[in-house]
Write a structure and sequence with these properties.
This is DUF5947 family protein. Strand 1 (36-40) and strand 2 (45-49) form a beta hairpin. The model is unreliable at 1-7 (pLDDT under 50). Strands 4-9-8-5-6-7 form a 6-stranded antiparallel beta sheet, with helices on one face. It has 202 residues and is α+β, with helices and mostly antiparallel strands. It contains 5 helices and 9 strands; from the N terminus they run H-E-E-H-E-E-E-E-E-H-E-E-H-H. The chain has helices at residues 4-16, 51-56, 119-126, 158-171, 178-196, and strands spanning 36-40, 45-49, 67-69, 75-76, 91-96, 102-108, 111-116, 140-145, 152-157. Helix content is 30%, strand content 23%. It is globular, with a radius of gyration of 17 Å. Helix 4 (158-171) runs antiparallel to helix 5.
Length: 202
Amino acid sequence: MKSTGALRRVVDRTTAAGRPGQPCELCSRPIAEDHRHLLDLRADEPRCVCYACSVLFQRDEAGQGHFALIPDRRVPLPAFAPATVGVPVGLAFFVRRPDGRVIAHYPSPAGATRWEVDPPRWRSAVADAEPLTSMTADVEAVLVNTARGCTEAWLVPIDDCYRLVAIVRRHWTGMSGGALVWSEIELFFDELRRCHGTDPGR
């Protein structure tokens, strides 16, 4: 589980993203509002980077096991079966590790809790989801939304998942979250549907 300090930095970085003049976290040059991210594999945190640094890290060997460029594709997965992997909550995301393990994460007010997915269950869930054959370890995730009568799944960059964790942590109140957090979560998925696909699974 991500430490409180690390999660706080992710939340702050998500809040700051897009501010005019925000510096690249590698070379300190100003970055554009629409910029790419690297995943710091040692800290498990995204880093905002300028165009030049993103081009540098498009070559796999450039990161030397420390940084990996986060892809920017977002694909609806209508064939993915959330029930097959036993999603116990309304929101979850799944990350494949380089060793083949798949780690499920549950966004919560305290951060993102984790558990390891049973391999046969995962293989069954992704059997008909063709885009997942090219899912990149560590930097892409399957994001599942089964909250409030919705059932949808997406292949997304891992920084989208961190952004969702930040939304939950920032806006959650009381036992059920409150109206504001669910409104913000719905806006998050509305943007995905509007910009990157139809309305999958509804």
